[in-house]
Protein: 2-polyprenyl-6-methoxyphenol hydroxylase-like FAD-dependent oxidoreductase
Organism: Glycomyces artemisiae
Amino acid sequence: MTPGNAIVVGAGIGGLAAAIALRRTGWDVTVLERRAEAGEIGAGMSQGPNALRALDALGVGDRAREVGTPFYGTANLREPSGRDLNRAESGQSLPLLGFHRADLHRLLLDAVPAAAIRTGAAVTGYQTAPSGAAVSLGDEVLEADLVVAADGVHSTARRTLWPDAPDPAFWHYTVWRGVADLDLDPAAGGMTLAKDRYFLIMPLPEARVYWALGARAETAGERSADEAAEVRRRTAGWHDPIPALLDATPPDRVLHHDIADLDHAPLPTYVHGSVALLGDAAHPMSPDLGQGAGQALEDAVVLAAALAGAPDVSTALARYDAERRPRTQWIAHAAHRKGTGYISGSAARQRMLVWSTRMLSARTLASLTAKGLARVWDWEPPRLT
Ligand SMILES: Cc1cc2nc3c(=O)[nH]c(=O)nc-3n(C[C@H](O)[C@H](O)[C@H](O)COP(=O)(O)OP(=O)(O)OC[C@H]3O[C@@H](n4cnc5c(N)ncnc54)[C@H](O)[C@@H]3O)c2cc1C
């Protein structure tokens, strides 16, 4: 089809990736972002080989490899005492790169002309229009041939156009995150596992280290006046460098979010007329496979390729939905199951994990991890011509 004009709602990783992919296939794109500035928060994230291929398809893969660092993840597993459960053989990390979120976001932002992004633009409603779809920003209405709603986990688009869909649900899982100013070798990264919580360490370039504490929580929204102190309390006595990381993190920059997903009620479709949901708006997922943003990147590439190869928007969006929904919902379910295990609180499960991990050689564990994730990591992007 002949490319037309598109509105992308949200300048997060998903929205920016969609803007890049659509522009590469000839679309005229306007990104609407409600925040005053299109920036990202101070935390980290990992990306797998599938996401890196999506970044390649967007033309920013080389830049991403420059700003990412090898991430060890489950290749280096420890107990809170510091005893190794598994240590990567010959320093071999998993095929993952760790990023400061702001770095990954920035390289996508740099690939979209500033004139195509309108900040301070909060979309309040969605309508059908003769051209395809329209969005309202208060009294102002903007029409387009296509609207891509990449407005995140609490998507206004999903609530408006899918009024019967339940909201993402809390499932007793909460996460604190921070970035410490500390120089750590990438091989010091990994995960420390306890009965109902874990601590993740991801060294980043420029003497920074991303850390996260994931834990079981009985009630949603429970917050402490001093979140940094709360993290210290929950990791008291845990091995080095955890105390040093917490010391090197400005207390006012400790983030605390509850995890919510749609695993209890996956959406029946990601498409409503000429509006396509993308990223967390369509499939909010637990962070445990490191795939939320990766799947948003894949969505963007597949959406643009479907539009390029179809006779009209509605055929393209039907293809997008058919291709993306099963994969993303399967990955979201797998991430939910993995997260459930991490925060289970079961002493028996913890003993089994410790025993089985120590029984396996590092090589066997790495190969089992790669086999278990092959269906996620092996994804190949369609060509964006
Ligand atoms: C603790 C944690 C760890 C994670 N770790 C990883 C990881 O290692 N790897 C990974 O791939 N993913 C990870 N994720 C998931 C990842 O953060 C998300 O999947 C990803 O950021 C989703 O991107 P998005 O663009 O869909 O949504 P968002 O990043 O939420 O962006 C949505 C954008 O839309 C804007 N917006 C919202 N409403 C409106 C509106 N009405 N009008 C205009 N603009 C609007 C927002 O301001 C925002 O800029 C993690 C998530 C968490 C919580």
The longest helix spans residues 313-342. DSSP finds twelve helices and 19 strands in the chain. The pocket of flavin-adenine dinucleotide is lined by residues 9-15, 32-35, 45-47, 122-123, 150-152, 156, 175, 177, 212, 257, 279-281, 287, 290-294, 296 (CB under 6 Å).
